[in-house]
Amino acid sequence: KAGVTQTPRYLIKTRGQQVTLSCSPISGHRSVSWYQQTPGQGLQFLFEYFSETQRNKGNFPGRFSGRQFSNSRSEMNVSTLELGDSALYLCASSLPPADSYEQYFGPGTRLTVT
Amino acid sequence: ELKVEQNPLFLSMQEGKNYTIYCNYSTTSDRLYWYRQDPGKSLESLFVLLSNGAVKQEGRLMASLDTKARLSTLHITAAVHDLSATYFCAVDNTNAGKSTFGDGTTLTVKP
Cα separation of A86 and A9, whole Å? Predict the structure, then answer.
């Protein structure tokens, strides 16, 4: 069974630009969550999607947004990039909550903003 | 606001020794996770603990959960070099989305 995939794996952008990251969950998983990992702030929850609906959102500015498609693939977008957005962005997929709580993480997208 | 505290944050130990990593959390939760992260890699799920008194073991690692004390422990038995990694605990706040993570414990096992 294929794991969670994320594209691209590495990205370099300039301040003020925008970026879109993609996440394909494990087949059959309908819940996708996004996390940001930085040395200073650690791992922080961004948002969670289930059946194309955002169920929860972390404490991030509106520049961070996401969506989920009918095939459960998810994208997150960051507009007007700032230097502080440089981070490893991880997505995780899981079965519907009633079936399992375990999250499976993808390899991450490392974003560098210059 | 749910807070998760791990200690120690850094742990250097010799092969063959035992040690325990502690994870305290601030509000009631019914799900606690332990993950491993190798440098430059993603997170690997180690344990999911769902109830008070839950204990799970895999190889040299054993995790336990005390929901009354809001405490989980990850016990390492007879450490080997391959266990060198950063270990995170995470707790779900059921009504506020997915997991809140601790700061991680970076474990270095020396020969």
Answer: 13
